[in-house]
């Protein structure tokens, strides 16, 4: 085994030593060799042994739990399918309930069936059949081509951008919403996703309205519930019929979608066949008109087009059996059938003319239809080539059977009505889960579908203009051709091909909208980015989005109640255009940022094309309807802000995050070029926070004060230091960071958090002061709390760290703010009443003292406070002149403040000051004595071991003469180690490092014999408790007496007395003037250059601040921070 490495002959059982085969006894040592434990291989777990082949990958075994082997990763990827459980699978889950679910086949759809045909079906629809002829007649061929060109260019450019995004990795079902949200972030994704959802829902309304319009106008006009008795009521009657039938149709379709989506999927091919057959019928009809135009006569009275519903012959009178009789048309314009009846003036003076509605391809009618004919609501549809006699009174025209405009027409309106006919380009990307090779099929299929439909639309515009009479084109509902669908008059073999085809096409499109929209809403709800939509993420047991379907039906009903196809079309145009705009933006942003993950397989894109597409979308929005555009953008903006404010935090590696990073980098590089001018200076704070043992913030009011001082402007870094090493304190550091961020959020402090783990607090604060921030975004001021417990603390490091921080900020030319009694500072919810912020300006260090109250008063907590400035005058100062100068200085600084000069006369040093200084120095001396007595015990045991070592050296000196220095030193080290070992052997308690020095000297009350063997001789030393006490007291007594005698005979240092005198006198003045102030700002004296007086410095500051509630000590950073210049 050892030589070959083959382990197959050993039957191994998991979790125990192996039991060798009885026929072949193996030495147990060999097996143990294989199973020996090591830092890398833990062979007690048999499963882990199987996770890699043999020992080839043993080095990486520790990684196996978190990082899979490449072979297993590739194996998982090979079996991966991105087929999401769509509508069809939901229904299969319903059918197979209780039975074992059949395995989902790998997707097999190619480009043609999977992308091209669905896109074709979604793009070609209701507008082509019901409105394109009217658009061509109203706008003319040239302007119609411009509309088609703009809209098709917009979708083509969007398709190029979409292809780039869709081929940059796997796009699950969710289509455009998924692409935008993962490219531009949850805020944009949610806003655009909901816009796309609303667009799809209103598209459902539009298709249902189209279905009902075809049904009531062209298939069964007699089914109308509301019938107009007067001509002027016809429009209202039609709208009411649309509302009633539309609501019934919506309810029926919603029921179909709810009960069986699989039927919708199965009928999709039938609906597609209807669309293709209808288009083929149109082209066949156009070709037929070239040699045999169909017979659809149009009757004109003068040059006005008549509604050809209630008469058969375009004649005023006709001769039947040599008798002239009036026709049905006469009765429409005259009061009776008699020849002498009173008739309408226009009818009386103008002749009737009959034109062919479809003159044919070779008739030359194209030249008449080249330019537009816009007009207001109620304008008569006229043929300007036919002569007419005008009359004075046209007031009765509205009651006559003329063809009129039912809406006011203008170019931009037609853009909005036409645009929905080019939407539907996302159908391919929405089905990416069903494709064999989505990254190849989506670009080819979508772009080919758009190219095909663009060609169909362009040729239809030209052919309609070349084949159909202008008055018929402008007749929206085909009233002039006996109520036929205008496009149907052109088709071959019968108008019914188009009517039935377009009816089923609209039905199918409506059903697909009602199927797709709820799933889109469900995807957004399940992403959890919009909290109030969470309920719509649930559905039936099979995942069918029931609640989302109900909401979709409700919104759809709003569109149906509008009832006009022409009014609904611009609404959904807005939402689709906004969606396309952001697809283009996503592609442009990713391309310009050159994100490492941006590697689309589709290579024929460019950021300039995406920007062009984006600009075109924006232009079309405002061209179509500026007020709808503003409304749609407002809705999207509200959703964006809502998600930003309330939504769940999502990190999708989006482009906006990358854009922010690039912008930040650019700004930081620009910032670093030069330090900020005095006019731009504001405190960029590093807040030094402390946390307790549970990593909870000790002084949250420090963060409140930061918020009030900054008001969200500038830089705030909240720093904290944990003592230890990063490897051991990693979890605590993360917990502290989370707690600090929570506290910052609660106190509304906008900024960054930085937790440092250092071997000691002193170094940690030093590192923060030196390295916090980045480039030009570095702090220039440090804010910290006064160490309130420095007197009670046994550890002098607490105040030593404070003083060293003061020194370091001074060395780094940074300002320092120290808040005393910080826990009594106001919260952000408090509103301080009438009061003052008092500034005691003793020395000028850059104007920080004047700037801080001004910044504080910007916040609502301090807004009602007034600012008072006190300055101190000495004996030889002119206090009146000082006050005038200071008032003028403040006037130039544009600061409102009361000014007061306080005179401090030279006075004798009081006994109180002398005594206070003496007590301070005695306390300092006493602490040093206590510190000495604490270390004395360690020194005594050290002296014992030193003595034993010296005797060892003396005994060994003779034997070490011929040894080299290095050997000698190594021998000495060995001897010391032996000595410690022997000490440990004879005194068992020595090995207990946690015991006190007394306990390990006395072995817990028993005498301990220190036996040190030195070659042939043995030194025997016995120490008892009594002997040690006697020896120690004998040495200590004279020293202790001297120390106590010195303590009571001390005379205070004159320098300290002077400083204490200043502190006491200044404190008296400040307390006298500012005890009732809401906040006192005071110059902070610098620490002594000689570190020996650090303790006294803390005492001076304590005396200076005594009796004051809220104090902010301020120390400037050595530069001017406020200026009188503009």
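Sequence proposed for the structure above (1126 residues):
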């Amino acid at each position: 085994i050892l030589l070959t490495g083959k382990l197959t002959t050993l039957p191994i059982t998991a979790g125990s030593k192996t039991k060798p085969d009885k026929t072949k006894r193996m030495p147990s040592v060999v097996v143990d060799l294989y199973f020996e434990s090591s830092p890398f291989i833990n062979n007690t777990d048999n499963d882990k042994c199987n996770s890699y082949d043999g020992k080839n990958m043993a080095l990486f075994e520790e990684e196996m739990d978190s990082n899979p082997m490449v072979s297993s990763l590739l194996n998982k990827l090979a079996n991966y399918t991105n087929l999401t459980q769509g509508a069809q699978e939901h229904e299969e889950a319903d059918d197979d309930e209780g039975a074992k679910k059949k395995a989902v086949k790998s997707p097999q759809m190619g480009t043609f069936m999977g992308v091209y045909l669905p896109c074709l079906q979604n793009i070609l629809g209701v507008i082509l059949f019901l409105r394109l002829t009217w658009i061509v007649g109203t706008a003319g061929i040239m302007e119609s081509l411009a509309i088609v060109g703009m809209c098709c260019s917009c979708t083509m450019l969007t398709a190029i951008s979409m292809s780039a995004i869709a081929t940059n990795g796997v796009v699950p079902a969710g289509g455009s919403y998924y692409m935008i949200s993962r490219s531009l972030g949850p805020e944009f994704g949610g806003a655009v996703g909901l816009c796309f959802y609303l667009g799809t829902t209103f598209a459902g309304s539009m298709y249902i309205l189209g279905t009902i319009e075809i049904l009531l106008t062209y298939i069964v006009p007699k089914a109308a519930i509301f019938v107009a008795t007067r001509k002027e009521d016809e429009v209202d009657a039609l709208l009411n019929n649309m509302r009633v039938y539309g609501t019934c149709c919506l309810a029926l379709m919603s029921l179909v979608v709810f009960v069986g989506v699989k039927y919708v999927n199965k009928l999709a091919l039938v609906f597609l066949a209807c669309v293709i057959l209808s288009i083929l019928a149109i082209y066949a009809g156009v070709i037929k008109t070239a040699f045999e135009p169909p017979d659809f006569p149009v009757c004109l009275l003068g040059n006005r087009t008549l509604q050809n519903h209630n008469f058969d012959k375009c004649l005023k009178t006709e001769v039947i059996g040599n008798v002239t009789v009036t026709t049905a048309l006469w009765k429409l314009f005259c009061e009776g059938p008699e020849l002498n009846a009173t008739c309408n003036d226009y009818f009386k003076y103008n002749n009737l003319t009959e034109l062919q509605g479809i003159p044919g391809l070779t008739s030359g009618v194209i030249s008449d239809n080249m330019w537009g004919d816009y007009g207001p609501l109620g304008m008569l549809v006229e043929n300007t080539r036919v002569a007419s006699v005008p009359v004075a009174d046209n007031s009765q025209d509205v009651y006559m059977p003329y063809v009129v405009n039912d809406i006011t027409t203008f170019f931009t309106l037609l853009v909005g009505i036409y645009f929905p006919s080019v939407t539907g380009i996302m159908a391919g990307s929405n089905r990416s889960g069903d494709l064999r090779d989505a990254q190849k099929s989506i670009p080819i299929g979508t772009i080919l579908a758009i190219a095909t439909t663009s060609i169909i639309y362009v040729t239809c515009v030209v052919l309609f203009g070349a084949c159909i009479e202008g008055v018929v084109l402008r007749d929206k509902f085909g009233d002039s051709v006996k109520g036929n669908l205008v496009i149907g008059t052109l088709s071959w073999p019968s108008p019914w091909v188009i009517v039935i085809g377009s009816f089923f096409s609209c039905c199918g499109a409506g059903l697909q909208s009602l199927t797709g929209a709820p799933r889109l809403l469900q995807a957004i709800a399940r992403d959890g980015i919009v909290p109030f939509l969470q309920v719509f993420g649930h559905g039936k047991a099979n995942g069918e989005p029931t609640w989302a379907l109900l909401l979709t039906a409700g919104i759809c009903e709003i569109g149906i109640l509008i009832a006009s196809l022409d009014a609904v079309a611009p609404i959904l145009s807005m939402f689709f255009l906004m969606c396309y705009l952001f697809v283009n933006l996503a592609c442009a942003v990713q391309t310009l940022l050159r994100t490492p993950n941006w590697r689309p397989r589709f290579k024929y894109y460019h950021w300039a094309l995406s920007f062009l597409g984006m600009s075109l979308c924006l232009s079309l929005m405002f061209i179509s309807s500026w007020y709808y555009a503003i409304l749609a953008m407002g809705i999207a903006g509200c959703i964006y802000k809502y998600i930003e404010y309330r939504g769940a935090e999502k990190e999708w590696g989006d482009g906006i995050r990358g854009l922010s990073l690039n912008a930040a980098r650019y700004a930081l590089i620009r910032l670093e070029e030069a330090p900020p001018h005095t006019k731009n200076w504001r405190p960029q704070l590093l807040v030094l926070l402390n946390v307790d043992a549970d990593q909870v913030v000790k002084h949250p009011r420090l963060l409140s004060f930061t918020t009030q001082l900054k008001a969200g402007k500038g830089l705030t870094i909240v720093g904290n230091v944990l003592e230890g090493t990063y490897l051991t304190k990693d979890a605590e550091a993360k917990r502290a960071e989370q707690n600090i961020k929570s506290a910052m959020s609660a106190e509304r402090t906008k900024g960054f958090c930085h937790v440092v783990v250092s071997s000691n607090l002193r170094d940690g604060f030093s590192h923060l002061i030196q390295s916090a921030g980045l480039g030009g975004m570095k702090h220039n001021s440090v804010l910290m709390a006064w160490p309130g417990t420095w007197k009670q603390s046994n550890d002098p490091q607490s105040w030593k760290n404070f003083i060293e921080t003061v020194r370091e900020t001074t060395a780094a030319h940074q300002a320092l703010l120290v808040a005393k009694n910080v826990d009594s500072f106001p919260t952000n919810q408090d509103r301080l009443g009438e009061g003052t912020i008092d500034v005691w300006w003793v020395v000028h260090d850059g104007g920080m003292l004047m700037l801080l109250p001004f910044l504080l008063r910007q916040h609502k907590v301090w807004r009602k406070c007034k600012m008072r400035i006190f300055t101190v005058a000495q004996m030889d100062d002119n206090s009146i002149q000082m006050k005038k100068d200071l008032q003028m200085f403040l006037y130039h600084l544009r600061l409102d403040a009361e000014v007061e000069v306080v005179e401090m006369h030279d006075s004798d040093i009081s006994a109180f000051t002398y005594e206070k200084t003496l007590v301070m120095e005695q306390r300092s001396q006493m602490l040093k004595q206590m510190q000495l007595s604490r270390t004395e015990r360690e020194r005594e045991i050290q002296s014992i071991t030193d003595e034993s070592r010296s005797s060892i050296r003396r005994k060994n000196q003779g034997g070490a003469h011929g040894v080299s220095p290095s050997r000698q030193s190594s021998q000495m080290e060995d001897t010391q180690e032996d000595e410690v070992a022997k000490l440990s052997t004879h005194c068992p308690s020595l090995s207990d490092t946690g015991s006190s020095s007394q306990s390990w000297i006395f072995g817990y009350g028993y005498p301990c014999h220190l036996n040190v063997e030195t070659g042939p001789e043995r030194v025997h030393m016995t120490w008892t408790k009594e002997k040690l006490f006697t020896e120690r007291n004998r040495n200590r007594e004279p020293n202790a007496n001297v120390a106590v005698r010195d303590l009571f005979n001390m005379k205070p240092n004159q320098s300290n007395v002077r400083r204490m005198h200043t502190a006491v006198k200044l404190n008296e003045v400040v307390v006298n003037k500012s005890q009732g102030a809401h906040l006192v700002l005071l110059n902070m004296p610098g620490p002594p250059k000689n570190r020996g007086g650090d303790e006294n410095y803390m005492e001076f500051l304590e005396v200076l601040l005594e009796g004051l509630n809220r104090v902010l000590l301020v120390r400037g950073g050595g530069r001017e921070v406020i200026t009188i210049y503009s």
